[in-house]
């Protein structure tokens, strides 16, 4: 009877250990590559978020700084048609620098309602479309109003939809244009708005009711002002251009990153030159 001889083909212990070591090295290299790619993706995502955050912040400021004085707010300033020494809530310039990192601007930024009844020049009352809208002018901070964006006034009292003004209207506000086409007359609330960065790296906007956060993780905010010739203005009323510079940082720190003004945070700087449209020359 013939016997079949079988050959042992298993791995030796040394071969198994070598295979385990090589596999461990390969897995460690793959894991390190994965972690590095994940870190790169996270960093890029944070940088994009930082840029977007700064752009949103500067876009809002650009819009309102450009609109400084809109609504014929100059009427309410000292020497204006309906002006007083106190201006609007103590603000007496359309653009008021607060050092290099704060600015206060005046303008009819907020549309509130429309006129419900045509208003004649010389009368001292206007009627809004709703009592709810009229009530927004019924306090000391919000008593400044712009009618149609062409004249401004102060509110003496509010009763339902009827607003009594401190000064008679200068213009007649009709519901048709010179060609006879129907139009609506918007009514705006005039605000003194202050932008600055607080101690918690938050860009805030304060329209008199307390600061509201516009953007987080803002390291610094700076302003520079120029007159029509590109020189620093002699007075705030001579301002014709405002340069805004925002320095934003990433939300989370990267321990491996050694650059930036704050160690471990990547930063992005965005600047904008704003031509102001509604400034009037100094008398």
Strand content: 25-35%
Q: What is the gyration radius calculated from CA atoms?
A: 32 Å
Structural class: alpha+beta
Total number of helices = 2
Number of DSSP E strands: 12
Encode the helix/strand succession as letters. HEEEHEEEEEEEEE
Unreliable parts: none
How many domains make up the 3D coordinates?
1
Give structural notes.
This protein is an alpha+beta fold and 283 residues long. The chain has one domain (50-275). It has helices at 13-66, 131-135, and strands spanning 95-97, 103-114, 125-127, 144-147, 151-159, 162-165, 186-197, 203-206, 211-215, 218-226, 241-249, 267-275.
Describe the structure using short key phrases.
283 residues, alpha+beta, 9-stranded antiparallel sheet, 3-stranded antiparallel sheet, 2 helices, 12 strands, 21% helix
Chain-wise SSE layout:
Layout: H1 13-66, E1 95-97, E2 103-114, E3 125-127, H2 131-135, E4 144-147, E5 151-159, E6 162-165, E7 186-197, E8 203-206, E9 211-215, E10 218-226, E11 241-249, E12 267-275
Antiparallel strand pairs: 1-2, 2-7, 3-6, 4-5, 4-7, 5-6, 7-8, 8-9, 10-11, 11-12
Quick rundown:
This protein is an alpha+beta fold and 283 residues long.
């Amino acid at each position: 009877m013939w016997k079949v001889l079988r050959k042992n083909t298993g791995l030796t212990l040394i071969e198994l250990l070598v295979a385990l070591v090589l596999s461990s090295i390969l897995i460690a290299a793959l894991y390190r590559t994965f972690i590095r790619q994940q870190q790169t993706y996270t960093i890029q995502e944070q940088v994009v978020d930082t840029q977007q955050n700064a752009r949103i912040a500067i876009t809002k400021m650009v819009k309102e700084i450009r609109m400084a004085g809109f609504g014929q707010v100059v009427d309410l300033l000292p020497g204006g048609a309906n002006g007083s020494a106190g201006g609007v809530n103590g603000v007496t310039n359309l653009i008021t620098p607060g050092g290099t990192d704060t600015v206060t601007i005046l303008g009819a930024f907020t549309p509130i309602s429309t006129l419900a009844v045509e208003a004649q020049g010389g009368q001292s009352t206007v009627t809004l479309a709703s009592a709810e809208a009229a009530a927004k002018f019924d306090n000391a901070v919000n008593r400044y109003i712009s009618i149609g964006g062409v004249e401004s006034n102060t509110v003496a009292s509010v009763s339902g939809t009827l607003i009594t003004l401190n000064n008679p209207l200068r213009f007649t506000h009709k519901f048709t244009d010179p060609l006879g086409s129907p139009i609506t007359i918007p009514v705006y609330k005039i605000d003194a708005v202050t932008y600055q960065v607080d101690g918690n790296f938050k860009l805030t906007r304060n329209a008199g009711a307390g600061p509201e956060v516009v953007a987080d993780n803002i390291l610094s905010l700076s302003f520079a002002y120029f007159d029509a010739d590109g020189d620093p203005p002699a007075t705030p009323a001579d301002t014709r251009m405002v340069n805004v510079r925002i320095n934003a940082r990433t939300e989370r720190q990267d321990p491996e990153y050694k650059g930036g003004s704050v160690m471990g945070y990547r930063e992005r700087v965005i600047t904008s030159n704003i031509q102001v449209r509604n400034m009037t020359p100094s008398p």
